[in-house]
Amino acid sequence: MNSRTEERIVLISVHGDPAIEVGKEEAGGQNVYVRHVGEALAKLGWKVDMFTRKVNAQQDDIVEHTENCRTIRLKAGPTDFVPRDDIFDYLPEFVDNLLKFQQENDFTYPLIHTNYWLSAWVGMQLKQIQGSQQIHTYHSLGAVKYNTVNKVPLIANTRLEVEKNVLETAERIVATSPQEEEHMRSWVSSEGQIDIIPCGTDIERFGGVDKAAARAKLRSKAQTVGNELKFSLDEEIVMYVGRFDRRKGIETLVRAIRKSNLFNSPNLKLIIAGGSRPGQSDGRERERIENIVDELGMRQVTCFPGRLSQEDLPLYYAAADVCVVPSHYEPFGLVAIEAMASGTPVVASDVGGLQFTVVPEETGLLAPPKDVEAFCSAIDRIISDSQWRDKLGQAGRKRVETKFSWNGVAHQLSDLYTEISNITPADAPSLIEK
Ligand code: UDP
Q1: Which of 17, 26, 32, when mutated, tests ligand 1's pocket best, judged by the most ligand atoms within 8 Å of its CB?
Q2: CA 337 / ligand 1 centre spacing (Å)
Q3: Which intervals hold domain Glycosyl transferase family (predicted)?
Q4: Any residues with Cβ below 6 Å from ligand 1, and which?
Q5: Distance of CA 26 to CAs 14, 225, 282, 427, Å?
Q6: Are 289 and 244 in contact (CB under 8 A)?
Q7: Mutation test of ligand 1: which of 20, 241, 307 has the most ligand atoms closer than 8 Å to its C-beta?
């Protein structure tokens, strides 16, 4: 085969489409990560192809994000939404179509960065078939996740095996926090090479507006929120944003607010934001949470604005007094750094990547997962001391600026790609004959 080696970076994210809207059941941090890493790498001079699975016939096969960064959707199984635990059987077709795409374009991808275990399997096949080098980011570890759920899916053993194999065979694993590295070592394998490169956030998009201005803007849009929330300056706003998934621990937050000293104040407001689809698992979780809200007599203080658009999200973060991330487990947790970038303190579960991003007593507070009392007192402490709250918010902003900007993250990944492959971004646009 007279094929050339195309000096591109390939990001594979089988179930997390980087071009899709986030905030729904299966669209969350991974989609955001892949998209922002891709776009930031393109700014550094790489040509970036991001492969994902096509989930409906109306979707474009190729989405151009910027001149050097695109999403390519491949057929694998039905052109329909398939829960991630049911995708594995369609992966051979994904690999075939990726190989076909290369063939049609007459190039071979030398370096592949895979995301989540499904893509890890795809990457391992490409490594075997054509000697591509592989970098892998887990986003979630089966061994840790299965420890926090009551029902383990049928696919569990396959996933655990793939996660072990990729750790031992990839050129490099990217852990997004020291906690995740530690989990890989204690739960997955002592073999394989791991680098720590965190997730990032857009420090210009988040943090560009202060609380008063954010509330004023949201006030003018309030008819679309349609509830008791006024976004007035005297409201104490506690916010959750993210997917509706039981493991996100939204119930803990709701119960904590019910117990709060401030509960009887007319100013306390709880926002629970995120998309959901009736009848799907996120829709069912939202319904469950709404029922708890009703049972606890909290309707008047609680607002469900649905999925927040990219435009509104920074305003909501800036408008909130405290952002709560009550997950049972979180490998990284983008929401925490987005809130911190917006100058808003975070109360988070004392787990996983949240132990890395949130510095207790400096940028927010940590509480044991599922511990209603602890979340309640942490939220109350911050809400009742506005000076301290502002100080925590400022320190959070600073921490994100120095440690978690997408550009900084992309630079670190770029250096890693070069170290492994000898390709530099300056070479990236060129095509080399094999
Ligand atoms: N998100 C959003 N709109 C919403 C809810 C969530 O844009 O209505 C985004 C949020 O800003 C974050 C991502 O979805 O970037 C969630 O990532 P995180 O790592 O916190 O959680 P995951 O979804 O990966 O479990």
Answers
A1: 32
A2: 11
A3: 229-399
A4: 22-23, 28-30, 32, 241-243, 273-275, 307-308, 313, 332-335, 338
A5: 12, 24, 9, 35
A6: yes
A7: 241
Phi (first) and psi of residue 222, to 5 degrees = -60, -25
pLDDT band at 222 (very low <50, low <70, confident <90, very high): low
Contact indicator for 163, 191 with CB cutoff of 8 Å: no
ipTM of the complex: 0.98
pLDDT 10s digits, 8-46: 899 999 999 999 876 555 678 899 999 999 999 999 999
Write down all domains in the chain, each with its CATH number in brackets: 4-200+405-428 (3.40.50.2000), 211-403 (3.40.50.2000)
Q: Which of 24, 71, 78 is nearest to 52 (CA)?
A: 71
Task: Give the whole-angstrom CA distance, residue 393 versus residue 286.
Answer: 29
Amino acid at 223: Q
Share of the chain above pLDDT 70, in %: 94
